[in-house]
Amino acid sequence: MRTYDDPCGVARALDHVGERWALLIVRELLLGPKRFTDLRTGLPTASQNVLSQRLRELEASGLVRRRKLPPPAAAWVYELTGRGMELEPVVLVLARWGSRMPMSSTNSLSPDALAFALRSTFDAEAARGFEGRIELRLGEDRFLAEVSPAGFELTRDTRPEPDATLETDADTLRALAFTGCSLDTDGIRVEGDKETVRRFLTLFPRPAAMNS
Predict the structure, then answer these.
(1) What CATH number should be reported for the domain holding residue 74?
(2) Could you tell me which of 178, 172, 184, 186 has the C-alpha nearest to residue 202?
(3) Whole-prediction pTM
(4) Residue 29 dihedral angles phi and psi, to the nearest 5°
(5) 80 within some domain
(6) Could you tell me which of 33, 29, 39 has the C-alpha nearest to residue 70?
(7) By CB distance 3.0 to 4.6 Å, which of 35, 51, 65, 192 could disulfide with 164?
(8) 126-130, 144-148, 203-207: which has the minimum mean pLDDT?
(9) 130 shares its domain with 94
(10) 86 and 65: one domain?
């Protein structure tokens, strides 16, 4: 493993998560375990060899582990350890900071990256007086978005009964939340309270550009 050979805590942290793709792998695993093929889907521009290497390094650092799911799935997945999960606030702050940078890519966001975009742009003041649970169905991915007086939570646990369900793809949800796309657009299906969904989509204002 390469090292900065610097005793500063920042440098020591970057010894473990400073390589290219490392923190994006963490982002993809923060909401739950994934198979290698799922990680490839979420990080399509990372080569298979580089992704494998980063996963080995993160395992060696005690941030990621590999385990086999019980039947009937019986698939091998990667998941964050407790130490890896401690990076969640770091990734969230980076997402907030980076969202104010000029857009440099026209690629689609992965569902997990979009989940972080929602979390990093949520406006608690705009949500004042609003409560709701919306199940987001993005292809095979399912998330539960919950707004309450305690704030905003977004998880893969959809067991609590939602007030409404919004089914679309990640690109369309991105347009709904950040560009004011209409719920009447093709490819969008809403079940339950449509006004709850409409109100929910107003809680993610575009970040102000960062001053130079």
Answers:
(1) 1.10.10.10
(2) 178
(3) 0.88
(4) -105, -5
(5) yes
(6) 33
(7) 192
(8) 203-207
(9) no
(10) yes
| Cα torsion 171, 177, 180, 181: sign | positive
Q: In terms of residue numbers, what domain contains 88? A: 9-98
How does DSSP classify residue 155?
A: E
CA gap 49, 21 in Å, rounded: 12
Same domain for 115 and 191, yes or no, is: yes
Torsion angle, alpha carbons of 132, 133, 138, 142, to 10: 160
Distant-in-sequence, close-in-space partners of 163: CB < 8 Å, separation ≥ 6: 132, 133, 134, 192, 193, 196
Tell me what pLDDT residue 170 has: 93
CA distances to 19, 21, 80 from 87, rounded to whole Å, are 15, 14, 10
Domain at 140, CATH number: 3.30.1050.10
Asked if 93 and 115 sit in the same domain, the reply is no
In the chain, the number of structural domains is 2
- Rounded to the nearest angstrom, the gap between the alpha carbon of residue 80 and the centroid of all alpha carbons in its chain is 14
Q: Tens digit of pLDDT for each residue in 107-138?
A: 888 999 999 899 999 999 999 999 999 999 99
Same domain, 18 and 86: yes
- Whether 130 is in a domain gets the answer yes
β-strand 189-192 against 64-68: which pairing, if any? unpaired
